[in-house]
Each structure stands twice: as C-alpha cells, then as structure tokens.
Amino acid sequence: MLKRISALVLAAVLTASCGSEGGTTATTGSGDDTITMGFSQVGAESGWRTANTKSVQDSAKNAGVTLKFSDAQQKQENQIKAIRSFIQQKVDIIAFSPVVESGWDTVLQEAKRANIPVILTDRAVDSADTTLYKTFLGSDFVEEGKKAGQWLVEEYKSSTDPVNVVELQGTTGSAPANDRKAGFLEVVGADPKFKIIASQTGDFTRAKGKEVMEAFLKSNPDIDVLYAHNDDMGLGAIEAIEGAGKVPGKDIKIITVDAVKDGMQALADGKINFIVECSPLLGPQLMDLAKKVLKGEQVPTRVVTEETTFTQEQAKEVLSTRQY
Ligand code: GYE
C-alpha cells in the first residue's frame, strides 16, 4: 500500500515537472516556518479582481504567509499549469479561484495524491468528488442573481406592458455567470411580461461589455433594461448607450453586480439603477482557513460571504467609505 502511494506521488511530481508554468508568478513573504501558499488567480479582468488580488496579497503579508501568486490571464490551462507547478514546489497549501467550473478533477487528484490541501476561493468547481478540496470560500451567486431579479420585479410591479431585458453574461462556463443567470431567471421567469430579448457574454470586462452592448443596441431598438453580471461590463455598456444617444439609468435601466467604487459612483450619479454587492475582500478569511486546515482543524465545507444591495440613494451615502 505504502509503495503504491509513493508511486502515485512520484507520478504526480513527474507529471508536474513536465509543464512549464503559465501566466506570471511572484513570491512575497518570508520566514522559515511560515506557511507557503500557492495562489492561482483568474486574471485582472475587472475592478473586483484587482481588489480581490490586493486583499489576498495584503492578508498573506499580515498573516505571515509566504504567497506564490500566479495570474492565469483568464485561461484554465494556465491555472492547471500553475497548480502543477505549486505541487512540484511542494507548497503547504494551494488556493485558487477557478476561471470555469468544469475540468478540474485530474489536477485536483494530483494535489490530493501529493497531500497538498486545496481551498477554493471566490468561484466553485463542479467536481462530483468534494474530497478534492477542503472548503469553498465565496459568495452565493444564485442569491445575487435572485436579488437582481427581485429589484426588477418590484420596479415594474405596477406595469403590465412587456419589459425587454438584455443580459451581459460573465465569462462563459464560470460559476458566477452560470449562477447569476440562473438566480435571475428563477425570479423574473415567473412573470411572462419580462422578456430576455438578447443574452451574450462580455467576459466580465469593460471593453467587451461596451462592444456587446453596441451590438445589442443595433439589433434591438426597444431595450428597457440591462442586467450585467458585473459592474465593469455595465460601465462599458453605459458608454455604448450614451454613444447611441440614449440616457443610461433612464431610457435603459441598469442592474449590475459587485459594487466596486466605479460602479457605485455610476449608481450615485444615476447611470446605474441597482447594484447587488459581491465582496472581493476574501483574503483575511482565506488565511484563517488555510491555517486551520494545516493545523488539522475541522473547517466548514462552505463559507459564504455576507453581502447586501444598493439603490442610488444608498450609494450616495456609502460611496466615500467603500473599501474597494
Ligand atoms: O463578479 C467579476 C469578476 O468571480 C465574483 O469575477 C467574481 C467575478 C466578479 O471578474 O467582476
């Protein structure tokens, strides 16, 4: 049995050494008996992501954790390479935010065989074997989608006319795109007056949000509402709407998710109508969980971030105190 395990570990190490690491990697922190964490980040696609990266890096420093940080530039293959490289470097623990939900079983099995615990942060994987990771720390994206839908239902409660909605989805196959869509549909789908007349990915970026919204505007003269899966795509779409001579927040009502500073500013300015908060400040909780896991303490298999929602009035009140 022991021989078999060592053979498997060896196999995993050999496989790991075949790949060169994708993206860029930086190491911060020091000390001999500190924890070394390999962290594979999605990329730098949005204001949310920038704040999340800073939170993870600052918290690692404060917690005395040596962080090997790798940016996957929104590519799953880069994340797999980074995780293999972390296994090869024998880090104490691996944390990562999976860009998409599917396709992680093989690399997670390699980490498990090498006895390196894995924590999922921010986004989920769809692996049936939940022993492949210790815990998943992040938001409830279905809940976020429902909150977006509930605002819309309330906003149009006294109207019987059809409401034409366009949707800017996040990265195709990512947990937040899948779940924010599902939660929203669950709520607005109950009333046939809401019609999703166009839905396409904007990859969570401002540039893509603008481009796709321009296309939506060209083919649909009658858009009442935009539901964007994040602030950045919504902000890009605002440029497209203004470019088409329409008034964002009035001619076209806008709902987004995240509540990053730029999004909150646009909400306070009346260009966005409602934002569902999604907190990127996961760093402190991640470091706590990592320490517990490495001490052999029991941790919950799911840790959900606490979040709220903002109207235009509320955005004006809290804008100056926002941390991200
Ligand atoms: O909403 C978006 C980012 O995974 C929750 O990714 C995260 C999402 C966030 O690009 O802005």
Outline the fold blueprint:
Elements: H1 2-18, E1 24-28, E2 36-41, H2 47-63, E3 66-71, H3 76-88, E4 93-96, H4 105-113, E5 118-121, E6 135-138, H5 141-155, E7 163-169, H6 175-188, E8 194-201, H7 206-219, E9 225-228, H8 231-243, E10 253-258, H9 261-268, E11 274-277, H10 283-294, E12 302-304, E13 309-311, H11 312-318
Helix pairs in contact: 1-3, 2-10, 5-6, 7-8, 9-11
Describe this structure in words.
This protein is an alpha/beta fold and 324 residues long. It has eleven helices and 13 strands. A seven-stranded mixed β-sheet has the order 1-3-2-4-5-6-12, with helices on both faces. A six-stranded mixed β-sheet has the order 8-7-9-10-11-13, with helices on both faces. Helix 1 packs across helix 3 and helix 7 crosses helix 8. The model is unreliable at 1-22 (pLDDT under 50). Bound molecules: beta-D-fucofuranose.
Number of extended strands: 13
Order of strands, widest sheet: 1-3-2-4-5-6-12
Principal-axes shape call: elongated
Number of helices: 11
In percent terms, what proportion of residues is strand? 15-25%
In round numbers, the mean pLDDT is 92
List the ligand species: beta-D-fucofuranose
Q: Report the C-alpha radius of gyration, rounded.
A: 21 Å
The helicity comes to 40-55%
Helix/strand/pairing category: alpha/beta
Terminal CA distance reads 51 Å
Which stretches of 5+ consecutive residues score pLDDT under 50? 1-22
Largest sheet: 7 strands, mixed
Tell me the series of helices and strands, N- to C-terminal: HEEHEHEHEEHEHEHEHEHEHEEH
